Amino acid sequence: MAEKTVKVKITSAIAIAGKIKTPGTTVEIGEDLAKNLISRGRAELAKGKAAKAEGDLGKMKVADLKVIAAELEIDGYDGMNQAKLIAAIEEARDA
């Protein structure tokens, strides 16, 4: 029998299955992992349209984007503007 899955909204940058998930990102994960993340304040249950959409990097502050870029080990992130950070993060996630 397959494990029940739950849609959660990430509230703090974390890695799931080797990929960085940023605050605001909605993911569908196993119930046990969801309970763990929610109990540690790293996620909350997704609601309404948020359950269907990924987080929007464009709404994040440059400082937060730089934290994600550092976690993804993106070279030269410190001198990037918001648009370049977003492009680099999306490229790194797709790699």
TrEMBL record:
<dbReference type="InterPro" id="IPR036269">
    <property type="entry name" value="Rho_N_sf"/>
</dbReference>
<feature type="domain" description="Rho termination factor-like N-terminal">
    <location>
        <begin position="56"/>
        <end position="92"/>
    </location>
</feature>
<dbReference type="Pfam" id="PF07498">
    <property type="entry name" value="Rho_N"/>
</dbReference>
<dbReference type="InterPro" id="IPR011112">
    <property type="entry name" value="Rho-like_N"/>
</dbReference>
<protein>
    <submittedName>
        <fullName>Rho termination factor, N-terminal domain</fullName>
    </submittedName>
</protein>
<dbReference type="GO" id="GO:0006353">
    <property type="term" value="P:DNA-templated transcription termination"/>
</dbReference>
